Amino acid sequence: MLKKIACSVLLLQSSVSFAQMVQLDELYQRYVEADYMSSELEEFNTKIEFKSIIAELDENLAGDLLLRLAGPNEPNAVIARATSSNAQVKKFSQLQEGDIVKMQCLLQFTMNADYLALSECEIK
After folding, report:
1. Which pTM does this prediction carry?
2. Strands (DSSP E) found in 2-123
3. Distance CA 121, CA 107 (A)
4. Of 44, 60, 69, 120, which residue is most buried, by most CB within 10 angstroms?
5. What DSSP line would sit under 2-15, residue for residue?
6. Rounded distance between C-alpha atoms, residue 48 and residue 119, angstroms
7. Taking the CB of residue 17, how many other CB atoms lie within 10 A of it?
8. Rounded distance, CA 57 to CA 10, Å?
9. Residue 73: CA atoms inside 13 Å, Cβ hemisphere, count?
């Protein structure tokens, strides 16, 4: 019985994904140093957690809310664009410019853009 419980706990732990905590400003700087290729970053295609400032609210081409994010060190410089997960659309629509938020997002492929692309974002 104990062996069965231990196996269940191990399976549960392996199915839980943890987001890597990053400083958005530092991540963006490494993106610049990687010649504007997010695929060169170790965090590429993984969940990251960070604090940021909502610099602007906008819409993407599909009409979904798009957040333009600034890092805490340079609140006037947009360095990332984020879209919400389906479950977070209502929370995202309540955000305002200037809000400081802690988020968890998937770092998407970005190349030769002056921002990082983040998707499936959730407010923490």
Report:
1. 0.82
2. 20-21, 47-59, 65-71, 74-84, 100-107, 116-123
3. 10
4. 69
5. HHHHHHHHHHHHHH
6. 10
7. 7
8. 42
9. 9
